[in-house]
Amino acid sequence: MELEGRTAFITGAGGGIGTAVALALAARGVDVIAVDRDIDAAGATAAAAGRTGREAIAVYADVSASADVTAAVAAGLDRFGKIDICVNAVGVGGVARVVDHPDELWHQVLAINLTSAFLVCRAVLPSMIDQGRGRIVNITSRAAYRSSAGTAAYAASKGGLLAFSRVLAVEAGEHGITVNNVAPGTTLTPMVERGIGGPEAQLREAVQSGVLIRPQRLADPSEIAAAVVFLCGPGSDFTTGTTLHVNGGAYCA
After folding, report:
1. CB 89, CB 18: distance < 8 Å
2. DSSP secondary-structure letter at 137?
3. Candidate list 60, 145, 154, 251, residue with the active-site label
4. Mind listing the pLDDT tens digit for each residue in 13-43?
5. Phi, psi dihedrals of residue 212, rounded to the nearest 5°
6. pTM for this structure?
7. Annotated catalytic, 154?
8. Under the phi-then-psi rule, with left for phi > 0, alpha for psi from -120 to 50, and beta for the rest, what region is 107?
């Protein structure tokens, strides 16, 4: 397998897209460091990844806290000796209009969605630079491109992640490290399913979002994971500083 023997550090690995990425990479021969502040959920992901025959560990971290990130990366390096792939999949939402947006919600969303990626990338880069290669994939969002009322903090955090990734691609390129984004549309993670509701509500969301795929539907986490796998493999050796949109045509870049 093309990725066999690599090691991946994945944030938000306790569910949704993070879990899907962990399992997709493990199925292609990648050892997994599943990072989440819900250590039980991360443990379940690690156990599922382990059933593919790869080694996997669960590591606790609040990835918006620098000390936690440093400790989590150190734990991964101690266990596997290297980190070849880093996927920043952690993310939270929150709906509030700017006129009455709580300070706490703004800071929370930016800390988890944006600052965490900075902290994680800063921590994994030295080991990638030492080995002269690496793949970093950040999970952004269609929201960074297409505005919706009530999503100021979320859209700002994901737009900031796009800009951060471009800068990091410039800085890391000379070391053989690529940095790319995957921008999902609305994806059927457990959090989204609870918020949107059943099949009829999900279809309404797909129609309102402008999904072009027929029959209209929302994305499955495995489809986002497939895009991440591509950006981690040899087929993307000449791809960096870019964004791969996976949204059924709901936003056409």
Report:
1. yes
2. E
3. 154
4. 999 999 999 999 999 999 999 999 999 999 9
5. -95, -25
6. 0.96
7. yes
8. alpha
